[in-house]
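step 4 of 6: structure.
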Amino acid sequence: MVRTRFAPSPTGYLHIGGVRTALFNWLFARRHGGRFILRIDDTDQERNLDEALEPILRGFRWLGIDWDEGPGVEGAHGPYFQSRRGNLYQEAVDKLVEAGQAYHDYATPEEVQAEREAAQAAKRRFVYSRRCMADTPERRRELEAQGRQGVVRLKMPRDGACRFTDAIRGEMAFEWAAEQDHVIQRADGSCLYHLASVVDDHHMAISHVIRAEEHLSNTPRQIFIARGLGYDLPAYAHLPFVAEPGSRTKLSKRKLDKYLKHADFARVAEHGRAIAEALGLSMAPETFSPVVVDFYQRTGYLPDALVNALLLLGWALDDRTEIFTRQEMIDAFSLERVSKSPASFDPRKLWAFQSRYMQALSVAERANHARPFLEAAGLLPSPAPAEARRTLEAVVEAAGDRIVVAGDILEYAGFFMEDAALPYDEKAFEKRLRRPPEAADLLAGFRDRLAGLEPFTAASVEEALNAFTAERGVKIGQVIHALRVALTGKGVGFGLFEAAAILGRGRCVSRIDRALARLEPGGGSAGA
RNA sequence: GGCGCUAUCGUCUAGGGGUUAGGACGGGUGGUUCUCAGCCAUCAAACCGGGGUUCGAAUCCCCGUAGCGCUACCA
């Protein structure tokens, strides 16, 4: 039975690199009919657990990465919170000490550090002298009588090598002597990560440990612990890092400001921020970032697009397949095809996936994705009346592939506003209405045509405009750009005739009148 | 400092003793449209360096170099 796991710390946000690791674990479990376990690494019990965990679970749910055991899904191997498994760790520590694979040690951190520095100065590898090792009760009492605090250290072998097979990197060999006598239990009785991780993996019957490359060098000490406890070893697979955009450095959640200097990242972040602002959300910059899953959820990306992009970060099927449905990726996934070198996360490539996935949806589906954004912005009541829904679908259809993420609907907010509330892009207003001397006259003339136009459709408006420009002997561009600004407030947008048809005769006339009034001396040109 | 992992276009990658080194993103140019987006066509762009093995190396081996990781009473 294949059983894989992902063990996030409750940090308050789900990081894109972590999701990639979780995804590969999930895919591997699903591929082999196994189970995917979510285990919460909450040994630092400093913050409010629920508050710190919720965004992580929400992110996984949104992405469709479901867990078979973990928070909210009880199984035979719980509890799934490390903070509640202390008894198992203590048991393991005792067993290791009893078996002579670990020992109580009473050296102060300063004493150990001094040895470490001496070794470095001599350009030797550091090997602890075990000067304060206490392997008998008498020795323990003696050292404790000196007022020393004890920890438990691993008694690592000092000869030979640790060999294991990594499913991605092949045969590995590490000199045992390079390993430290790592502390597994602190003076206060709490246990450290490596011990807890090995114990939990065993008790949760994890068959494949699939994790990031940073743990490759940690594997020997974990194997030592597992063997000391008499556990069967899981299979290991060490994934390449997810690196920063445009670099080979490990992606870190701490360095948002640095990523924002990268042009591609900045662009995506800026786009997301504009959507958040249109929604009136005040987002904390440290979590509203393109390295955090929440960013994509809030700006209206499709989970399938994000998952697809993440899939290709360190894995490829062949020389051309890029688009995978969830089932296709489950069927195709294998550890053998995971690459060994770090992959840097490219938000522009994700954007391209998003664009493709969005365009593959029907108008009704895209409208469904977009509607919550208009509601959140206060532009559409919830539930929306039938007429508003028709307008929404018409806008979505006309906008076509201009709506890449669902939040892009807010670019078309003007269609959902009162005429009197329509904001103008001042530069466009200046260029298309104020500066061309004939603009006001042409617009006024065409307004009267529209006022009597029947029926009022995209085709009839186009016909009317063609007739009008022919009569006046002007080019179509002399009217159309001015009209666009008058109707939508913007200099760019989708087809103008479609825009007019969506607004309808009354609103078109009203918006033209408002723009014309604004053109007159003293006509609301303040701030221009 | 020690130990380890890694190295193909700017980015993600395919290939893996003989290839015009393939695809995608991004970029350039031309076309189409009322603007924008798109779409179509087209172009540029890579095997880290040095040695070896071999008839032949980007591919195998060694050495460098670089990046990253581990070297914590962090995870």
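step 5 of 6: annotate
 - The CA atoms of residues 12 and 494 of chain A lie 40 Å apart.
 - DSSP finds 20 helices and twelve strands in chain A.
step 6 of 6: archive
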